[in-house]
Design brief:
This protein is α/β, with parallel strands linked by helices. It contains seven helices and ten strands. The strands form three sheets. Strands 3-2-1-4-7-8 form a six-stranded mixed β-sheet, with helices on both faces. Strands 5-6 form a two-stranded antiparallel ribbon. The chain is globular.
Length: about 260
């Protein structure tokens, strides 16, 4: 079977799956860093735990199950992979990620945008209303150039003036303008926000994780925020609000990375 035939078959399967789930859709594509540095402080284990908690919380929410659409893309160990494509969350199986190699973030962003665009076109063709697409980029280090390694086999860091970065940014800006993309950059023990700033839909969408606000807590908060938005009336300005309650029950935003 040709690649085109496989793609058409996949799209038709997605369309059939949507017929059983009513209501507006919230497409959420999560890019997760699986590079070697994610072994630090057991962050890769926390990532797996957090993703599992997120899926379980969504499964317990019957309303969210009909509205939330999730795709997972890993970048690092094994390159860049569409680990989980959009489909009924009840049929999805989240893999157990392991950490190794470099951080091809631009490659992951390109794949994430392509995956979201395919899903947005399916909604349009099927007459299904939707909230703005969401892209979450979770990383703990500096991105590396796709497919480039030094003489010792280590991935080469991505230069700020590289053609790869410029092309990815152009594609990102075009997609954001066309589909009202909401993109959130999540830095895992990351102090330099330069690259996440480039691909966040607004400056306040660049978040920081530390000891208290770790990966597991992020996914707990994301599940609550996703559930709230899944019940809203579709609007081009809708977006996931990542706020948590303090000891007094007051809401406060997630910690930001300092400029």
């Amino acid at each position: 079977m040709s690649d085109l035939m496989r793609k058409l078959e996949k799209i038709n399967m997605k369309k059939k799956g949507l017929q059983n789930r009513l209501g507006a859709k919230l497409p959420l594509c999560i890019l997760v860093d699986t590079s070697g540095s994610m072994k630090k402080n057991n962050n890769i284990d926390k990532l797996n735990e957090g993703l599992n908690i997120y899926r379980q919380q969504m499964l317990l929410d019957k309303v969210a199950c009909d509205h939330i659409e999730i795709a997972l893309i890993s970048f690092g160990n094994g390159g860049t992979n569409l680990a989980v494509d959009f489909e009924d969350i009840k049929d999805q199986k989240f893999p157990v990620f392991t950490a190794d190699e470099g951080t091809p973030m631009c490659e992951a962003i390109n794949l994430g945008l392509d995956t979201l665009e395919e899903q947005m076109k399916i909604y349009a063709e099927e007459g299904i209303s939707n909230h703005p697409p969401h892209l979450i980029i979770m990383t703990d280090g500096y991105p590396t150039a796709s497919g480039q390694y030094d003489s010792e086999g280590y991935a080469i860091p991505l230069e700020k003036d590289s053609l790869e970065l410029k092309r990815t940014l152009v594609k990102f800006e075009k997609f954001k303008a066309e589909y009202n993309l909401v993109s959130i950059g999540v830095g895992v023990e990351l102090d330099d926000r330069y690259y996440l700033d480039l691909f966040a839909s607004s400056p306040e969408n660049v978040l920081k994780m530390g000891d208290e606000e770790n990966i597991v807590e992020f996914f707990k908060l994301l599940s609550k925020s996703s559930s709230v938005l899944s019940r809203a009336v579709p609007n081009p300005n809708n977006k996931i609000e990542l706020k948590k309650q303090d000891d007094q029950g007051l809401f406060k935003p997630w910690q930001k990375i300092n400029s």
